[in-house]
Design a protein that fits this description.
alpha/beta; elongated; five-stranded mixed β-sheet; 8% strand; 395 residues; 17 helices
Length: 395
Amino acid sequence: MSHQVAALPSVGSLISQGVNGHKRLAVALRALIREKRKAKEEYQELLHALYGVAVLCDLLESFGRERLTFFADLTNYVPFDELLRMRCQYAWMGYAKVPSLMKTDVKWLIAEFGEPSVHHSFEPLFDTLRRDAVRRFCRAEVIRGSKMRLSPAEIEAGLTQVLRRKLEFSISIDNENRARSTAVSTRVDRRAEGLEALENVWEATNSDFVVADIETTGLDADACEILELAALLVSPVGLVISEYSCLVRVRSRVPSFIAELTGITQAMVDEHGISERDALVGFASFVAQRPLFFHNSTFDTKFLVPAFERNGMNFICPVIDTLPIARAAWPDMRSHKLSTLVKIIDDAPTPTHRALSDARAALAVLLAARALAGHGAVPRGTDALLSNPAPSAYL
């Protein structure tokens, strides 16, 4: 860059900022060239300066690659005034291998200086400048790491050690990143394979389906009873068409720990509970022969099947478990409980150990997994869970 161009106010102020102003410097030069062209004045010196700054931009861009090795900005180790004194001749090097030149820049250069006969890369020059910057950086590291004043010979002896440490550290980081990338890719592949294997599940949601849940007086199906039944009738797009919910009048009293866990008290059962048979008849009528989803269906069916048998009915609707679906969709999660899954699903309702709220949470899990598999869209928020709610009833 000539002294005349460097002395221009809009240029000189940016030069004083060093490497931080190099991109704005190109913008300023383009503005000055446009002014000169409009006034029909000479602008060759400005064009030479713009060409040099474009080469400088490419050089500093190449320095960014070294940041991954040395974790430092090596442009701080190249005197900016030296860079500005680089001889970048358009006639010798051409424009094809200067990426920072814009189409308008090339048009101006060709119009003013003609089409160059050759196009060469500045990479050999960049290599030299990068090596010099690395050497200055390593020298600074040696000096910074010593508590004593070092002689020039001692500094030179320490350069190789610093360079080796930096390269070894960079290689270890690169290996870790590669391993992490491979692990992520493996997880994605495993999820895709798991969800693809559930094609029959997604087919079950192509027509109306039901998501249900039960609450019980305990975990032992031989000694405990169904306390609450709830189900959601869901359309293929994931909208709730209607609900079924009822409390069951159990033979024994509601245990205190169950009342505390669910909020279902003996008084509620006494006032609103219906007989087990009526509850099951209503549930069966609501579900009909539609696909029936439970989260951890093993628990629900071990209560439902004997209950239906006790009341002279058969539990014959197809049951699908959302627990293995969740495991396929989120294979890296340690827990696939509803309370854990809803934390990673946008706008999913929180399960409260009430049958209706837990069914809604199970539906959110099912729809989110289906979306990950690429089958259907997930309606957002509570709109997905209540499109046309029916009052709680036994049918």
